[in-house]
Backbone:
């Protein structure tokens, strides 16, 4: 089954959707595995930045699962799902904020060895996801919002590696909290971008035709 793209070419829609589903399935599995790894490492290492990264991976896994469910769906459905993705990112930000407050009330110096190993593995997994999703960064809103989440993961991955290095360098827990606070700002900015894009898409869909 195919359709014309208006430029003399025929796009095999079924094959395109099948490829999108395969990519989303792989990145979903990667994020579920890294979430479990980061959660365990955060618990052992007493690290807020690792927990922040783990929660981000869980949120991304949910995002990819939703994206997978609406591959081939209508533009209206994809735009509404993109709104939900934005709220998921906001929920991750709220969880990070709560963790930072708790850690301020219960200070501890993280174990940088556990932080460093988990951070490097997480960054490698995030880079793999971004490579897989990169061809779809300018596609429809469903795949482009998934790519947005993956790009944020790269920033998050480098930030957690930096946090581990600074904890080792200074022998203190404040770099961990500082990086976690930076990730909180990143999540809020990302949520704003996704929600604005989804809101604009929803408005265009609901506007009456001229």
Residues:
């Amino acid at each position: 089954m195919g359709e014309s793209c208006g430029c003399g070419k025929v796009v095999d829609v079924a094959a395109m959707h099948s490829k999108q589903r395969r990519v989303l399935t792989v990145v979903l599995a990667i994020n579920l595995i890294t979430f479990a790894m980061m959660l365990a490492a955060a618990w052992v290492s007493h690290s807020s930045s690792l927990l922040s990264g783990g929660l981000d991976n869980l949120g991304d896994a949910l995002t990819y699962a939703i994206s997978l469910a609406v591959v081939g769906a209508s533009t209206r459905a994809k735009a509404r799902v993109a709104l939900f993705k934005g709220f998921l990112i906001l929920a991750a930000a709220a969880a990070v904020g709560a963790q930072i407050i708790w850690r301020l009330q219960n200070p501890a110096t993280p174990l940088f060895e556990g932080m460093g190993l988990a951070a490097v593995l997480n960054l490698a997994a995030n880079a793999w996801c971004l490579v897989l999703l990169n061809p779809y960064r300018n596609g429809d809103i469903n795949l482009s919002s998934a790519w947005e989440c993956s790009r944020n993961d790269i920033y998050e991955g480098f930030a957690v590696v930096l946090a581990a290095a600074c904890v080792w360098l200074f022998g203190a827990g404040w770099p961990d909290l500082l990086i976690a606070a930076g990730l909180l700002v990143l999540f809020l900015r990302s949520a704003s971008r996704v929600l604005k894009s989804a809101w604009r898409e929803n408005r265009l869909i609901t506007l009456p035709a001229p």
Summary: The CA atoms of residues 152 and 186 lie 8 Å apart. The two ends are 31 Å apart (CA to CA). DSSP finds six helices and two strands in the chain. The longest helix spans residues 13-45.
